[in-house]
Design brief:
The chain is an alpha/beta fold and about 475 residues long. It contains 19 helices and 12 strands.
């Protein structure tokens, strides 16, 4: 029986037909039967058999990160070339399309729509999603429930709850898993802290940024000392937007949460006082604070930001000299992350299960990723143990072990207010408010710009 999808795959048109080719109408497979016959693997992490399954495993993603994790940490993976690998007799094909101009999602959408009629070797088996658009796929039958693969609640017990919330559909069904967590911290310029605040001790610095009122007072002090509190108002946006009490869309109507408006008011105050800028994230102006002459006190981000995006490998940068410190900041938040979804119609359910299990549930593999890749992993015992490990430290953070800070920030994250419209609403809101912050529009004019842009993108919505 075919079911109508509550889908946003085609510009959120909300109309598409369920993919055929799966074991039943709700995406179940014959994994349990295979285990009884000895053809599947069990939750103890035994290697999956490829017997009676497909000979090609197609993985769709937008960069090399997941590929490197599989190459380095998944047992029995063999590299063939830049886009191909082997797991036993199964050929692994990496289909990597960059995120630029929404190219990854566009390619994924077009391919998923052809999944039911695709030849076995061409079917998508695994695809990756990010938090901002996870529900776009999770709330459809294009993604399989992980329990239908044989992954149990007990298997997932040590994962952080927020990572499961993000890929849980509107019926409460888990549709993906992640090997990483991305809790955020406040990264501060140690030299600026010593010069202006008199200390670079993380606990002492936290007292100057412990809540938003204190943060704004510290911004005044930093300006007097010759520093911007942040490079841009956009640095703090996700801290506010992760702490909302309502969704972007309620009953088909665009809704702006009070905490989002608090970001607007707090940011306007900082910009008008000359205490921060309005630079776009990833722009050259935004990045100037990675260097001492940029005169920026702090950035907000997760482990991947400080480790891979703040020029830590570039001589002369603050990170290269070990000049950053980390503390909790005003509120806990997360930014980013990658989730593994099993595509409905996969002809490799056992090996898909094994990849999901090994890469997100095995504590030894999780610990290995922390040590080898400086990643924050989605396994509470592994992170707690590493946070207490005095031999582990970050050169970029001046020898500090920041993991206890990340762990504290991740415990209270509540992602119950995610919606399928988050990516578009977040992007258009920041775009519109830039005009207000820079004095080119009133707040009302900027809000009107936002509403119109969102409705143009999602015609089914009202405001």
């Amino acid at each position: 029986m075919k079911k109508k999808l509550v889908s946003v795959l085609l510009c959120l048109s909300m109309a598409s037909a369920m993919l055929a080719g799966c074991g039943s109408g709700n995406g179940t497979t014959n994994t349990d039967a295979q285990k009884e016959e000895g053809n599947g693997e069990t939750s103890d992490g035994g290697e999956a058999s490829d017997s009676e399954e497909g000979k090609v495993l197609n993985i769709y993603c937008w960069n090399e990160e997941f590929k490197s994790r599989i190459t380095d940490h998944y047992p029995s993976y063999e590299v063939v070339d830049a886009t191909t690998g082997k797991i036993g007799d199964v050929t692994v094909k990496w289909n990597i399309t960059p995120n630029d101009d929404n190219a990854y999602q566009n390619n994924l959408d077009a391919t998923l729509l052809k999944q039911a009629d695709a030849a076995a070797d061409d079917k998508i088996d695994i695809f990756l999603v990010e938090a901002d658009y996870a529900l776009k796929y999770v709330d459809t039958d294009y993604t399989m429930p992980v329990e239908d693969l044989g992954i149990t609640e007990a298997d997932l017990a040590n994962q952080y709850p927020y990572t499961k919330d993000i890929v849980t559909d509107s019926n409460g069904v888990l549709k993906g898993v992640s090997w990483q967590g991305c809790p955020g911290a406040l990264f501060y310029n140690r030299e600026a802290a010593k010069e202006v605040l008199g200390t670079d001790d993380p606990a002492a610095v936290q007292e100057y940024v412990k809540d938003w009122d204190t943060f704004r007072e510290t911004a005044k002090t930093m300006k007097e000392g010759g520093y911007s509190i942040m490079s841009s108002v956009n640095d703090s946006y996700r801290v506010y937007s992760n702490n909302v009490s309502s969704k972007w869309v309620e009953d088909g109507k665009i809704n702006i949460d009070d905490n989002i408006m608090k970001w607007v008011d707090d940011s306007k105050e900082l910009v008008d006082a000359g205490e921060t800028g309005t630079h776009e994230l990833w722009s050259d102006d935004w990045s100037k604070g990675f260097y001492p002459e940029g005169k920026v006190f702090c950035y907000f981000g997760p482990a991947w930001l400080i480790n891979f995006s703040m020029a830590a490998d570039t001589e002369g940068s603050i990170g290269y000299e070990g000049g950053w410190g980390a503390t909790e900041g005003p509120q806990g938040f997360f930014w980013g992350g990658t989730w593994i979804c099993a595509a409905t119609g996969t002809d490799n359910p056992s090996i898909v299960k094994d990849i999901m299990y090994q890469m997100t549930c095995k504590e030894d593999i999780m610990t290995e990723i922390v040590k080898d890749d400086d990643d924050f992993v989605n396994n509470k015992p592994a992170m707690d143990n590493m946070a207490a490990d005095t031999s582990y430290s970050s050169k970029i953070l001046g020898g500090q072990n920041p993991l206890s800070i990340y762990c504290a920030g991740v415990e209270d994250l509540d992602l119950g207010n995610l919606s399928a419209y988050d990516q578009g609403c977040n992007e258009e809101f920041q775009n519109a408010m830039k005009n207000y912050f820079e004095g080119n529009a009133t707040k009302e004019e900027a809000l009107d710009q936002f509403y119109k842009a969102v409705v143009e993108k999602y015609p089914e919505l009202t405001y």
